[in-house]
Amino acid sequence: MNVRLLTWLGICFLMGNAIGEPQRNSIGMPFIRIEPGEYVRGFQHENGRERQFDRSHPYSNRQNMRHEKPAHRVAITQAFDIGQTEVTVGQFRRFVEATQYITEAEQHKGAMGYFPEEKDYVDRFHSDASINWKTPGFPQSEEHPVVCVTWRDALAFCKWLTDQEGVAYQLPTEAEWEYACRAGSSTWYSWGLDPDLAYTHANVADGTLGSVSPNTTRYQRAVRLETGEGDGIAFTAPVAQFKANAWGLHDMHGNVWEWCRDRWAGDVYEQVFDGIARPDRDQVLVKDPCFEDKTDQHAYGDWRVMRGGGWTCAPAAVRSSIRTFAEAGDATVYTGFRVVRQR
């Protein structure tokens, strides 16, 4: 079937994926059941869609989608439960208190913090021994997403839950993550095409952040927003404060970047069509992809995928298809995670 037709039909409505009541685990984390189905992963660039994106985001810097192309059909063949929200400070604290776990940032030289008093924007993000999940440099309650955790810290949390409950917990693959984020949509955002709706669906960089950190959002090019406008949150927001997507998941766009299981490869989407003639590409269906290979880049670190954008990102940079990476030992004030549970 033609990919364009699949897009038009909105194939991601998927096999009766209705919203049910969240199911909670032993520490009260709410999960949403995601049924198997198909969707188109990545940024669909045919028919001038990139130019359309640029025209629709006149207050944002031009986006580079090279790592999000070519779009391709993906099948998720097994149901899974995914956290309705990002893992919170309170939930992570339960893990730490139960295991006496010490995060990598605490063991080493701290995490990358945000220092708005620095005059130059590029100097505002730097590592500091005082920055970790307990003291990120801005106020957080037990209901805020935990930050300053590495990929390995996130895996340790998953292992603890697995051992405690006898059910497999892990980070989502980026294919599972985007499938859940899109929630049946094939548009730039799970809510559609309007970037201004980000301020009700996502915690993004805007006038609120600019009011406490002058010139920050100017570098995001979100210049339409004046001081006091936007989503009302400067740094991280308590989870589930913004509107959920169609499948009941909160903060899939913005708030914090989320670790995924996959290793990073900038050309992994291109590899889908290796050896496939262009006329035959519409027939390609990738089942349950998870990239685990080591590339030349991995000689210099264990680079892992992050998805979703964070509170430092302009609306254009929290689109459903956006993907980036960090080293598995990196910890920052704009990175957290959510987990999946297999049954």
Quick rundown:
The chain has about 350 residues and is of the alpha+beta class. The protein has 10 helices and 14 strands.
Give me the secondary-structure topology.
Elements: H1 3-9, E1 23-24, E2 30-34, E3 37-41, H2 49-56, E4 72-76, E5 80-83, H3 89-99, H4 104-107, E6 111-114, E7 125-128, H5 151-165, E8 169-170, H6 174-182, H7 198-201, H8 207-212, H9 216-220, E9 257-263, H10 268-271, E10 285-287, E11 303-307, E12 323-327, E13 335-336, E14 340-341
Assigned CATH superfamily:
paralog of FGE (formylglycine-generating enzyme)
* Number of helical stretches of at least 4 residues: 10
Largest sheet geometry: 5 strands, antiparallel
Portion of residues in helices? 10-25%
Unreliable sequence segments: 1-16
Tally of strands: 14
Number of domains: 1
Assigned CATH architecture: Alpha-Beta Complex
The overall pLDDT average reads 91
What does this structure look like?
- With 343 residues, the chain is an alpha+beta fold.
- The protein has one domain: paralog of FGE (formylglycine-generating enzyme) (Alpha-Beta Complex).
- It is 21% helix and 16% strand.
- The strands form 4 sheets. A 5-stranded antiparallel β-sheet has the order 1-2-5-14-8. The protein has a 4-stranded mixed β-sheet with strand order 12-11-9-13. The protein has a 3-stranded mixed β-sheet with strand order 3-4-10, sandwiched between helices.
- The model is unreliable at 1-16 (pLDDT under 50).
